[in-house]
Design a protein that fits this description.
Length: about 210
């Protein structure tokens, strides 16, 4: 999108056509996209001061949301294999450590049926130049974030590669206040106190931001 890397020096028209060809490849191979997006302005007033560190980590609930959506999809399609979770390698970032910490805590509270699908070991972190499927995942995550931000601004979300990509199956969740309270209750058996908080939806002073997997 920023005309860098392999897109350096090409025109906007050529970039858009290249993106359409890439989206056609994803459609051809029937790759399923799964995303979990948590608005910071909802998550942190609710969980930011929780005494347990892993609850304050948005990756924890994102793992829960992604695993739940994925397992439901696999079960509905008669697939019983365990899932190998692979994320993009991000040197110098705390996100890898947070993801691994979130994974261990997620396994502790995951329902028994989840364990038929999830591995004991934490996710792997590999280079998207070696694992090209990560490039499709990166595009899916980026477009999910952009779509949510456009909706917050009252804009119509339409990708520049349209109509390519319209047949891609996308299973995602954007957590709202009620969703987060429900998922918290399902994990811990009680609902977090919310009476003392005022939740503000829509644009924040610096624009909306999301924790996204």
């Amino acid at each position: 999108m920023n005309f860098k890397g392999q897109f350096t020096g090409i025109s906007e028209v050529a970039r858009n056509e290249k993106l359409r060809l890439f989206l056609n490849l994803i459609e051809e191979h029937k790759i399923v996209g799964i995303a979990s997006a948590i608005p910071h302005h909802i998550f942190f007033p609710l969980f930011g001061s929780h005494p347990h560190k892993f609850v304050r980590n948005p990756y924890f609930i994102s793992f829960y949301g992604i695993a739940g959506r994925l397992i439901a999809y696999l079960a509905a399609n008669g697939i019983k294999e365990k899932v190998e979770f692979i994320f993009d390698f991000q040197p110098g970032s705390d996100q890898m450590r947070e993801a691994q910490d979130g994974w261990a805590n997620f396994r502790e509270v995951a329902p028994p049926e989840y364990h038929d699908y999830i591995q004991v070991h934490p996710p792997s972190f590999l280079d998207d130049k070696d694992v090209v499927a990560l490039q499709a995942a990166d595009l899916h995550a980026g477009w999910t974030r952009e779509t949510l931000m456009m909706i917050d601004r009252g804009e119509i979300a339409k990708p520049i590669w349209d109509p390519s990509g319209n047949k891609i199956i996308s299973i995602g969740v954007s957590w709202g206040l009620e969703n987060l309270i429900t998922i918290f209750h399902s994990m811990f058996g009680y609902s977090p106190p919310v009476a003392t908080y005022t939740f503000q939806y829509g644009l924040t002073p610096n624009g909306p931001s999301y924790a996204l997997l």
